[in-house]
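Sample 1 of the test manifest.
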Amino acid sequence: MIETHATTEEVHGHRALQHHFENMEQQREAGTLGMWVFLVTEIMFFGGMFLAYAIYRSAYPAAFASASNHLDITLGAVNTGVLILSSFTMAMAVYFTQVGKRRPQILCLVLTLLLGLTFLGIKAVEYHDKYTDHLIPGNLIPGNSFGPAVQEEGQPVDHHKLHLLPGATVKQVEMFYWIYFAMTGMHALHMIIGAGLLAFLLFFSIRGRYDPEYHSPVEVVGLYWHFVDIVWIFLFPLLYLLGRHFEHG
Amino acid sequence: MSEHIVSVRVYVTIFLVLLVGTALTVIAAFYDFPWQLNTIVALTIATVKATFVVLYFMHVRYSSRLVWVIVASALFWMGILFALTFSDYWTRNWLSVGY
């Protein structure tokens, strides 16, 4: 039997098309769908921690408000802005890939990566402040176990000391910091993984791998990056803002 | 069905909405609202911001029905997680039985 062998290009249409997909459209939709299924598991994962937060906050409202007031609201708000801006540049990176403009696409990926690293840098400053104020819970750091100085009535106001609202105990504040470090720590880990994914995208977009026909990887990493942004959109008010109105109301 | 490309104008608008939302949530946090309204205001603003991110930055508004179903399933299971857990925690003191 004589067969005519068509070239791969003719049969599949695009060099990036995998053999088990009909066309690029189907491949892209399958990729997006797969990422969303993964994000659902991520939502459930973070959901468990938000649940723990909700239970302990309803049990120790005064301690959670006191502990929250010790966090740096300015750094938290700036970091929220940084992350929102990085989500915007990520969305623009997807856009420029879709319309086939490689230079702005690479620029947007670089900006997103830099903003992500800025977020992590500010987070590191905050973690260091908690370290010097002895607010790392339990005995996680040997030789620097949990034990913040407590502000006493009538003493000069010291922002490194813990201001306990009526009804709050130091032990309950420690519970807030377990949850704070678990949630922001897992969030930061996701940011680090996201930065790695962005570096990967950058490497291949400089080599010209992505074009309007094939941009699934940029789209899918974008979905992940926006998801991490959404987690922070909830973490910021829940961790940083919950007790302010007791001090300034 | 070909892909919908979200315009730059939409992205810029959403970005500005998110910044305004962040400013609002910070300002609102310093007002002492009655009852639990502080938390409700903060969570409402956060939910609105998240919805904008999901619909526009994550393109769900322009995605297939299947993606909508998957996103909805996440919210549904989160609802079960919170509803069943709090049906326990909130009702523990309703009956004076020792446990």
